[in-house]
Design brief:
By secondary structure, this protein is α/β, with parallel strands linked by helices. The protein has a single domain (6-257), classed as Glycoside hydrolase/deacetylase (TIM Barrel, Alpha-Beta Barrel), CATH 3.20.20.370. Helix content is 37%, strand content 17%. It has helices at residues 25-28, 46-58, 84-104, 116-124, 126-140, 153-160, 194-207, 234-247, and strands at 6-13, 34-38, 62-66, 111-112, 145-149, 164-170, 209-211, 217-219, 224-227, 251-252. Strands 1-2-3-4-5-6-9 form a seven-stranded parallel beta barrel, surrounded by six helices. Strands 7-8 form a two-stranded antiparallel ribbon. Helix 3 (84-104) runs parallel beside helix 5 and helix 5 (126-140) crosses helix 6 (153-160). The chain is globular and about 40 Å long.
């Protein structure tokens, strides 16, 4: 299986806060090319944000904001009744906070990736998807990349409005036939076997295919692949995914180095 295509490998980082620690950021960061840094609403705090930015820059990893709903106790995974205007304000507020830490460290933001249930809500509600696209344009113009679910409605809605979108696939999540992710409430929704996650990532990157939880082959076009930092054994999964992508001939590089302009 030979290919020379470029692919980005991203992971959610900096989701600890206060005295509570989540994830293995120090072990994962050297294996990824883009870090989605929590901004305080679903996880993270000012001190964690600063440390995470410094860790990313140490390893040459591109930095993006990972804004979520204001739901620290529920880790941003509970549906909330929010308006498009509120979504824009939440994304602007959180991205601005992270951008200042990145600026102080002498770098720039590469991307924005909404977190958790908000990401799913935008797939179901075009008005929320449009709000995210507008927030990205207002925050960083056409240079700021917005990560969106590959082959999804949110992805298409933002591209239509001139947003620089990176279509995202997931190595550690199961898929439905409509290219959405299987609910975390359903058994088998998480892929915790590093070999299985690696195989799924390689097929998405090199063949544009993924097998659904029901065993159906579907088409999917991805430019970035995500491994969740809070998946059990995430550090082993990320390392194996990176190794497998490179073995398959992919150039694993940050989106800023190769993603076409909007």
């Amino acid at each position: 299986m030979a290919t020379t295509r470029s692919i980005d490998l991203n992971c959610d980082m900096g989701e600890s806060y206060g005295r509570w620690t989540l994830g293995a950021d120090a072990e994962i960061m050297p294996c990824i090319t883009s870090a989605n840094v929590a901004c305080g609403f679903h996880g993270g705090d000012p001190h964690v944000m600063r440390r995470t930015v410094e860790l990313a820059l140490k390893h040459g990893v591109a930095i993006g904001s990972h804004p979520g709903l204001p739901d620290l106790m529920g880790f941003g995974r509970r549906v909330m009744d929010v308006t498009p205007r509120e979504i824009k304000d939440y994304l602007c507020y959180q991205t601005g906070a992270l951008r200042e830490f990145v600026r102080v460290a002498g770098s720039d933001l590469q991307h924005m990736k909404p977190h958790g249930i908000l990401y799913n809500m935008m797939e179901k509600d075009e008005a929320l998807a449009v709000a995210a696209g507008e927030a990205a344009l207002e925050s960083g113009g056409t240079g700021l990349i917005l990560m969106a679910l590959a082959s999804g409605k949110y992805d298409r809605a933002c591209r239509k409005r001139g947003v620089r979108v990176a279509s995202e696939g997931f190595a550690d999540r199961a898929y439905n036939v409509d290219c959405t992710l299987v609910s975390r409430k359903i058994a088998g929704s998480l892929i915790t076997d590093p070999e299985a996650a690696a195989a799924q990532a390689v097929r998405m990157a090199t063949e544009g295919k993924v097998r659904t939880i029901d065993g159906v082959e579907i088409d999917i076009a991805v430019q970035t692949i995500c491994c969740h930092g809070d998946t059990p054994g995430a550090e082993r999964i990320v390392r194996r995914v990176r190794e497998a992508l490179e073995k398959a001939g992919c150039q694993v590089r940050p989106l800023r180095d190769w993603l076409p302009a909007a």
